[in-house]
């Protein structure tokens, strides 16, 4: 019996593009916690593997509760990679040893990339060695179960009211 080939690890370029797409979607998502957590874990792994480096601290654009807070600017890319991407992540205690750069530099822009959102998430989960979040089937309430079993007359055009 043949063994299934494990997919090759994603390239740094694929990871950069996936992070860009996930970050862009996280900014507008109704519940962005999963996406920001995915981005954070991927950035931490890139930092451990020395494919990214912390550049410094910057003031947050949207501080919580009106308090001034700082974020870490992370540069993703190596000296040999063809492009460099920059991302922000929340500062942790040890990050306050980094040089503070002041206001966020609006001139630093990532190159525009195009990739389907689900592909981006799959790439990051594969990079992290995870299968992705497990979707749990929603349990139907008793009312939903009763309504589902109700006979619908063709007179009502097949619509449930």
Structural class: alpha+beta
Question: In total, how many domains does the architecture comprise?
Answer: 1
Per DSSP E runs of 2 or more residues, the count of β-strands stands at 3
Strand arrangement within the widest β-sheet reads 1-2-3
How would you describe the shape? elongated
Main sheet attributes: strand count, strand direction, barrel closure: 3 strands, antiparallel
Helical stretch tally: 4
Let me know the average pLDDT: 84
What is the multimeric organization of the chains shown?
A: single chain
Q: Termini distance?
A: 54 Å
Low-confidence stretches: none
Estimated helix fraction = 25-40%
Radius of gyration: 22 Å
Strand content: 5-15%
Along the chain, the helix and strand elements come as: HHEEEHH
Summarize the structure.
This protein has 161 residues and is α+β, with helices and mostly antiparallel strands.
Walkthrough of the structure:
The chain is of the alpha+beta class and 161 residues long. It has one domain. The protein has helices at 12-26, 33-48, 117-128, 142-148; strands at residues 52-59, 70-76, 85-90. Strands 1-2-3 form a three-stranded antiparallel β-sheet. A hairpin with an 8-residue loop joins strand 2 and strand 3 (85-90). Helix 2 packs across helix 3 (117-128). The longest helix has 16 residues, at 33-48. It is elongated. The chain starts with 11 loop residues before the first helix and ends in a 13-residue tail after the last helix.
Attribute tags:
elongated, single chain, 161 residues, three-stranded antiparallel beta sheet, 3 strands, alpha+beta, 4 helices
């Amino acid at each position: 019996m043949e063994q299934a080939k494990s997919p090759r690890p994603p390239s740094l370029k694929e990871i950069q593009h996936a992070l860009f797409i996930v970050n862009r979607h996280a900014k507008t998502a109704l519940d962005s916690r999963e996406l920001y957590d995915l981005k954070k874990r991927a950035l931490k792994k890139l930092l451990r593997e020395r494919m990214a480096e912390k550049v410094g601290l910057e003031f947050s654009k949207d501080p919580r509760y009106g308090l001034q807070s700082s974020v870490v600017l992370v540069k993703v890319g190596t000296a040999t990679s063809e492009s460099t991407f920059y991302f922000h992540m929340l500062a942790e205690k040890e990050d306050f040893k980094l040089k503070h750069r002041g206001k966020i530099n609006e001139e630093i822009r990532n190159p525009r990339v195009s990739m389907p959102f689900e592909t981006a998430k799959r790439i990051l989960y594969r990079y992290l060695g995870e299968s992705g979040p497990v979707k749990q089937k929603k349990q139907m309430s008793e009312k939903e179960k009763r309504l589902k079993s109700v006979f619908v007359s063709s007179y009502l055009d097949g619509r449930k009211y």
